[in-house]
Amino acid sequence: MAPKLDVSGVGADGESVSVMEGDLATLITDVKTTQQEDIKWYFDDTRIAQITGDLSFICTDVGCNEDTERFRDRLKLDHQTGSLTITDVNTTDSGLYELKIISIRRSSEKSFSVTVYDVPAAERDEMKRKSVKEGESVTLDPGVTKNPNDVMRWYFNDICIAVVNGDKRKICTDDQWDEKLKLDHQTGSLTITNTRTTDSGEYKLQIISSRFSIIKSFSVYVTDSGLSSAAVAGICAAATVCVLLLMAISLYLLHCPVRRKEYPV
């Protein structure tokens, strides 16, 4: 089993972020662009994204530097904040990301040290793809160590169903989910009890801090038991009748007198 990751921290190079292969990571600028600002992102000293305050120039990856195709259309820029999103991260994305914010009044720089952990495909599939039979429980474990200030939001088909904020847990949907969901406020893991086929679909966990956001995706498939609740009830009733009948026959044979046939001497 892959070790649990401490997804954030502060190191010598600035903010540190740890993610697993296949996750989506957003590096947050914590600013809002104005007409005077120019935001640039660098990876290992190579410009990979840029946006001007008036939105007259926006580029990512090869649009900024023709000699680099490392990210292959996996970079997204938020036009309001300049925050950088890396989709489907892989180990080659590990390294130092530098943010430069340039304006008329002042300039500032921030850095993010990103580490992408390689998890074997079979283990990753076991963690992110779950298949259970109807009525069973399934647990979605993010595989991270939750930091006290992080907010975790669980989504089912893009609808928020649960939130973990510090040591507080909240089911943010109807009563149907309230009875089925169990949240671990220490790890952020989500357990779905008494599953139904309607619970099949895509679940996403968003981990939010002040400097980054990570999204992990999980697929859950609930297989039909093949029998309706009425059919199951009928089978149980029939089985009960059979048991009672066998008990009655056993008692009759036990207490029924045995007649011996007499032969003439």
From TrEMBL:
<keyword id="KW-0812">Transmembrane</keyword>
<dbReference type="Pfam" id="PF13927">
    <property type="entry name" value="Ig_3"/>
</dbReference>
<dbReference type="InterPro" id="IPR036179">
    <property type="entry name" value="Ig-like_dom_sf"/>
</dbReference>
<feature type="domain" description="Ig-like">
    <location>
        <begin position="3"/>
        <end position="115"/>
    </location>
</feature>
<keyword id="KW-1133">Transmembrane helix</keyword>
<dbReference type="InterPro" id="IPR007110">
    <property type="entry name" value="Ig-like_dom"/>
</dbReference>
<feature type="transmembrane region" description="Helical">
    <location>
        <begin position="230"/>
        <end position="254"/>
    </location>
</feature>
<keyword id="KW-0472">Membrane</keyword>
<dbReference type="InterPro" id="IPR003599">
    <property type="entry name" value="Ig_sub"/>
</dbReference>
<protein>
    <submittedName>
        <fullName>Uncharacterized protein LOC113078546 isoform X1</fullName>
    </submittedName>
</protein>
<dbReference type="InterPro" id="IPR013783">
    <property type="entry name" value="Ig-like_fold"/>
</dbReference>
<dbReference type="InterPro" id="IPR013106">
    <property type="entry name" value="Ig_V-set"/>
</dbReference>
<dbReference type="Pfam" id="PF07686">
    <property type="entry name" value="V-set"/>
</dbReference>
